[in-house]
């Protein structure tokens, strides 16, 4: 494969894999072009450590998960220059990628180098590593899979040590919760800065033990494409005029209707919608269009890579409910929604 590194070989320069683009769960063997143990580095930053890892261990598939788009771009260029066919980079939040893309027990190793410290009291809840995240890792990691975490933030090290000690699913590979040095490793960019500035790292070297984990993190299910046909006394333009931004909580989904845009060409209305179904966050458009028979259709617009999750059905259901409040004579003629609004299909 020319260029090396799947981010470059399969995607354009400004593109990379995202959770919404891949099947849930992902077919890693197809994506890497071979079946091999899956080693995941979370928050690889500029990719210094990940690239060294992929070079030293050509026998493993290295999956890099990084939330920052500029970081993915920088690391992607390095992967291309390095010609590393055993690397796949994703622009993704780690919990979303692990839950949606990785089958239970499928991850052979996890590395987290210097997770964002969030040092202030009111930021502590934003830290990646907590009891819940370890529980997710426990479901996705294979028995005996190594878990390596490094941090130079003392309070975060204490938090990680406490969470690991509490977890029934992990055991230290050392005689202590962490080591103060790890001579074999290539220091990361952040690590080098910390060492220069007098912040010595703590290196956690743990492993998934053999204790089975119950799995409260199902791979998100996909539903039928939402498609609702309505009869109501309004056209898309009138619906757009009545639209107001709204936030709705339904089941475990937080739905935000942001704005409405009408096509100058064909009159279609697009409702910009954010759907947060932790850990999956989708920004998509719901489409409202008129049918020649005078009916109105609501569907998922083909903008980006929308996935018809439960949250999407709930969002379309919420739009139907809002339209019914605005136009009480509304009739649902046809619907593929799963229990997302009160009225059945007529
Ligand atoms: C302090 S930096 C460390 C970067 C690199 N590992 C190093 O040691 O130089 C933390 C990195 O984690 C990334 N990150 C933060 N939250 C993340 C998440 N939920 N999923 C994936 N990456 C994340 C950040 O974008 C950032 O690049």
Automatic annotation (TrEMBL):
Q: Write down the Gene3D superfamilies for this protein, in alphabetical order.
A: Vaccinia Virus protein VP39
Question: Sorted alphabetically, which keywords does the UniProt record give?
Answer: Methyltransferase, S-adenosyl-L-methionine, Transferase, tRNA processing
Enzyme Commission (EC) number: 2.1.1.33
What reaction does this catalyse? guanosine(46) in tRNA + S-adenosyl-L-methionine = N(7)-methylguanosine(46) in tRNA + S-adenosyl-L-homocysteine
Record organism: Candidatus Promineifilum breve
Name the UniProt record assigns to this protein: tRNA (guanine-N(7)-)-methyltransferase
The keyword S-adenosyl-L-methionine appears for this protein: yes
Q: Name one Pfam family in it.
A: Methyltransf_4
UniProt binding sites for substrate? 120, 152, 188-191
What does the similarity note say? Belongs to the class I-like SAM-binding methyltransferase superfamily. TrmB family.
Under the heading InterPro entries, the entry gives: SAM-dependent_MTases_sf, tRNA_(Gua-N-7)_MeTrfase_Trmb, tRNA_methyltr_TrmB_bact
Where does this protein hold S-adenosyl-L-methionine? 41, 66, 116
User: Any idea what job this protein has?
Assistant: Catalyzes the formation of N(7)-methylguanine at position 46 (m7G46) in tRNA.
* Pathways involved: tRNA modification; N(7)-methylguanine-tRNA biosynthesis
What are this entry's molecular-function GO terms? tRNA (guanine(46)-N7)-methyltransferase activity
């Amino acid at each position: 494969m020319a260029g090396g590194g799947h981010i470059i070989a399969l995607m354009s320069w400004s593109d990379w894999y995202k959770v919404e683009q891949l099947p849930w769960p992902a077919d890693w063997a197809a994506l890497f072009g071979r079946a091999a143990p899956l080693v995941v580095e979370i928050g690889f930053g500029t990719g210094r450590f990940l690239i060294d890892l992929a070079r030293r261990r050509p026998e493993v598939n290295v999956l890099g998960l990084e939330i920052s788009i500029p970081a993915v771009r920088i690391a992607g260029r390095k992967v291309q220059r390095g010609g590393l066919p055993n690397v796949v980079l994703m622009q993704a939040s780690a919990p979303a990628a692990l839950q949606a893309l990785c089958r239970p027990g499928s991850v052979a190793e996890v590395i987290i180098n210097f997770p964002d410290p969030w040092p202030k009291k009111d930021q502590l809840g934003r830290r990646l590593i907590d009891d819940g995240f370890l529980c997710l890792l426990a479901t996705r990691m294979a028995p005996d899979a190594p878990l390596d975490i490094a941090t130079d933030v003392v309070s975060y090290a204490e938090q990680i040590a406490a969470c690991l000690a509490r977890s029934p699913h992990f055991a230290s590979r050392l005689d202590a919760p962490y080591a103060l040095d790890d001579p074999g490793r290539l220091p990361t960019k952040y690590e080098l800065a910390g060492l220069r500035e007098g912040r010595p790292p703590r290196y956690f070297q743990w492993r998934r033990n053999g204790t089975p984990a119950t799995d409260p993190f199902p791979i998100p299910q996909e539903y039928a494409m939402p498609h609702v046909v309505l009869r109501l006394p309004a056209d898309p333009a009138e619906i757009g005029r009545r639209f107001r931004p709204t936030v709705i909580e339904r089941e475990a989904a937080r739905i935000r209707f942001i704005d409405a845009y009408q096509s100058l060409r064909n009159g279609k209305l697009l409702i910009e919608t954010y759907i947060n179904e932790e850990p999956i966050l989708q920004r998509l458009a719901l489409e409202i269009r008129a049918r020649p028979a005078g009916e109105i259709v609501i569907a998922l617009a083909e903008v980006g890579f929308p996935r018809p999750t439960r949250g999407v059905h709930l969002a379309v259901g919420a739009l139907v409910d809002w339209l019914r409040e605005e136009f009480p004579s509304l009739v649902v003629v046809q619907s593929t929604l799963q229990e997302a609004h009160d009225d059945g299909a007529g």
